[in-house]
Amino acid sequence: MAANTDRRRINAPSGGTSAPVFAKTVLESGYLQSLRPNRTRGPNELRKTFLQTGIVPSASGSAYLEVPTASSSQSTLIPPTSSLKIAASIQGPKPLPRSAPFSPTLVLTTTVKFAPFATRHRRGYIRDSAERDLGVHLETALRGVIIGERWPKSGVEVVITILEGDEDAWWGDSGAEGGAGSGFGLLNVLAGCITVASAAIMDAGIDCVDMVAGGVAAVTGDGQKVLDPCPAEHQDLVAACAVGYLASRDEITEIWLKGDVGADPDELIEGATHAALGSVSVLREVLLENMEAKMNITKEGSKRKLEDVEMTG
Amino acid sequence: MAAITTPSNTAPALTFPRPIFATVAPHPFLQAHLAATKSSKTPLRANNRTAQEFRRIGVNTGSLTHCNGSAVVRLGNTSAVCGVRAEILKEEDVQGTADFAPSTGSKAQEHVEGEREEFESLRLLVPNVELSTGSTPQHIPGNAPSSFAQTLITRVRSLLLSTSLVRLSDLRILYTPPSNPDDPDAEPEPHLKGYWVLYMDIFYISIDGNAFDAAWIAILAALKNSVIPHAFWEEELETILCSDDPSEAHPLALRGLPVPSTFAVFEGKRDWNESGEDDEVDWVLSDPDAFEESVCKESVCVVVDCSGGKKGTKDGILNKLEKSGGGVVDREAIKGLVKRAVDRWEEVEKATNVKP
């Protein structure tokens, strides 16, 4: 672990620590399977999404997204599934430093970071390849939306913090344990990142051609198409696809497809855009709320000016 | 108001909108607020609080799935998430546990001093902070932890150790063999098989001053919320296993409830014509926000704990006193600050006691 040599942080014991192993999972063979979560929604039904903007007042724009899990069991300390909790914050647009080369358009930088407590395995503070990968995918999704020509010589930072992320597969299945699983969970995380970043950009008031929204669809072993799959609930996903979708222009800025799609990938991509439409409706509502709140503030702001402390200078 | 008029003010008075005044001249801006002589009203700071007023605390616990305990703390616009995660440190991975092992038998007497040494040498408490989450424009990701982040976490860690907040007995994993190998008639002695290591990760969602108080209250609330599974040594498999039954798990029994209160000292510009007359020009601001931190040099942090005695806030312990950056706060002023910190303790105690 690289964090062991990091002198700028507080380090773990040098002997290394291990996550607790629960007795029942080792000693009783059927116990683990009894905890397996099941999909209770229909194949076309999306999970509920909570989205809020303006959580970081010092940033120019920010948003928080949460996709809660359906069940939380009280009879065991082993959490059945995780939910998705993502915070996004936009810093900028601000002028590039003098040392930076000239850029006629807005320079977009995206950073995605998992919190150490985001997944079942504790993560380090140094960014790993999965996080960089997500960052690049997110940048692709956003770059096509922002009208960069309006901000020459400036840069904007999109910082995404994943407080809790979806898993690649249900953790009880062997193979997924080592983190070398199918990677389907990352697709959900990416779709969440796209949606929350879009809301934050909207909050920051950066000009865009449209609202981009993320959506995921997957194909199960028996050929059924499901929207918004929670990988923990499906044992037999064969392929999944995440898109960044512009609903009113019917354009796609980002596709990430994993697994064996078969002869016709279009249907899967189509499914993902349908899932994205669900996120768009959430985004629209948040945009409206955001606008109303801003109108109210300007009204109150003018009221406040009257009773202000008198000042000269 | 006379305090801030500058010689160039003979021209018709220039007025600015608030935000511009604050950016162009932050120091006079705050002073004008604090020195405002509106009748019958206590002067307010730029953030609409009085000098003595702290921000309201909001605590929300147990929202993270993969943590033994977690808390989200809000102090006005400062908000932090803390997740406490317990992992097992096996006895064979530790060098020199022999020094500590004998004391495991006598659980009745607790040597707080010895415990502290054991915590420190084994590194059983691992707090860390992350500021580069877009929480403030100053901390952009991609850089190494800034000196501010390093100072912050060192302060948190030293307070964790010096207050002996966590009990070692909660973190030890003991095993009592069925019979004593040396003497079959005697009581079997428990053996130390491992430790729980507590990782405490603090992620700031947003920073608007007073990051330290937020971090500490988040840790405090998360630790109070933490549940450690029952761990035992399985002799057949020769490994440590845990029980997933919530009724067997134990919460952490914390020693007291130390609460920090940070104050910033605002030194107003004195009018040098009046030779140091009675004008009040220095203010001690409770719980400063980011704007106030940027114009204040001196800061005081008082950590008090009133949970020991039965008399509530009348019977408190001063855990720690940190002061840096100036000489305005004297002995008398410190006394006043401790009183303010005790009042704050009561508020924090109420906020952290809320069950999820």
UniProtKB/TrEMBL annotation, chain A:
One of its GO terms (molecular function) is RNA binding. The keyword Phosphoprotein does not apply. One of its GO terms (biological process) is poly(A)-dependent snoRNA 3'-end processing. One of its GO terms (cellular component) is nucleolus. It is found in: Cytoplasm; Nucleus. Keywords: Cytoplasm, Exosome, Nucleus, RNA-binding, rRNA processing. Its main location: cytoplasm. The keyword Cell wall biogenesis/degradation does not apply. CDD domains: RNase_PH_MTR3 (cd11371). It comes from the Eukaryota. Residues 45-206 form the Exoribonuclease phosphorolytic domain. Belongs to the RNase PH family. This is 3'-5'-exoribonuclease.
UniProtKB/TrEMBL annotation, chain B:
Signal peptide: none annotated. One of its GO terms (biological process) is U5 snRNA 3'-end processing. InterPro entries: ExoRNase_PH_dom1, ExoRNase_PH_dom2_sf, Exosome_comp_Rrp42_subfam, PNPase/RNase_PH_dom_sf, Ribosomal_Su5_D2-typ_SF. Its main location: cytoplasm. It is found in: Cytoplasm; Nucleus, Nucleolus. The keyword Flavoprotein does not apply. GO terms for molecular function: mRNA 3'-UTR AU-rich region binding. Residues 53-229 form the Exoribonuclease phosphorolytic domain. It comes from the Eukaryota. One of its GO terms (cellular component) is nuclear exosome (RNase complex). Gene3D superfamilies: GHMP Kinase, N-terminal domain. Keywords: Cytoplasm, Exosome, Nucleus, RNA-binding, rRNA processing. The keyword Endoplasmic reticulum does not apply. Belongs to the RNase PH family. PANTHER family: EXOSOME COMPLEX COMPONENT RRP43, EXOSOME COMPLEX EXONUCLEASE RIBOSOMAL RNA PROCESSING PROTEIN. This is Ribosomal RNA-processing protein 43. The lineage of its organism: Eukaryota, Fungi, Dikarya, Ascomycota, Pezizomycotina.
